[in-house]
Amino acid sequence: MMRIDPTLYTTIPSPEGRLEKEMAIYSILEQLGIPFERLDHEAVATIEDCGEIDQYLGITIYKNLFLCNSKKDHYYLLVMPGDKTFKSSPIAQQIGSTRLSFGAPEILEDYLNLTPGSVSITGLLYDQEQRVQLLIDEAILETEYFGFHPCINTTSLKIKTSDLIERLIPYLNHPITYVTI
């Protein structure tokens, strides 16, 4: 069983013991006036590890996959429901790409300031050159809330999906390409 602080917080945590990149996300949410619920927990590496987190937050944490084309000259961040299976071919066809595979951890860290297990839409903050194309499964638009990590996999946040689409993503300055999975 995972260690989880069952308290749901709606405030920014103390910066003590927190990474600068995590604190930057709270600052952005505060600046944009986006309310959130925060749950602290032990590190999670996969979507399967998020089951208990989902229950505490009353949401589904989404899969965030860092992908690249076969030439490794185009990179993508795919956000999709955790209960769906990623299949490269249909997504590649929808975006007009060659076969997709997982991007290298070094590129993930260089482009999004993230490490495997903590891949999150919030990493787009660090992609000022827009080297990563944002892909979102249309099914996410049907949900009221969106769950994600603030650049670190020891905390999960819950915000309204409308705040994600209308406020946070425009701030991150990455146009959305919607796909169907």
From TrEMBL:
YbaK/aminoacyl-tRNA synthetase-associated domain sequence ranges: 41-165
InterPro entries cross-referenced by the UniProt entry: ProX/PRXD1, YbaK/aa-tRNA-synt-asso_dom_sf, YbaK/aa-tRNA-synth-assoc-dom
Residues forming coiled coils: none
Keyword set includes Ligase: yes
Keyword Ligase annotated: yes
Signal sequence region: none
UniProt GO molecular function: aminoacyl-tRNA deacylase activity; aminoacyl-tRNA ligase activity
Keywords from the named record: Aminoacyl-tRNA synthetase, Ligase
Transmembrane region(s): none
SUPFAM superfamilies: YbaK/ProRS associated domain (SSF55826)
PANTHER family (UniProt xref): PROLYL-TRNA SYNTHETASE ASSOCIATED DOMAIN-CONTAINING PROTEIN 1-RELATED (PTHR31423:SF3), YBAK DOMAIN-CONTAINING PROTEIN (PTHR31423)
Annotated family: Belongs to the PRORSD1 family.
Protein name in the entry: YbaK/prolyl-tRNA synthetase associated region
Organism: Cellulosilyticum lentocellum (strain ATCC 49066 / DSM 5427 / NCIMB 11756 / RHM5)
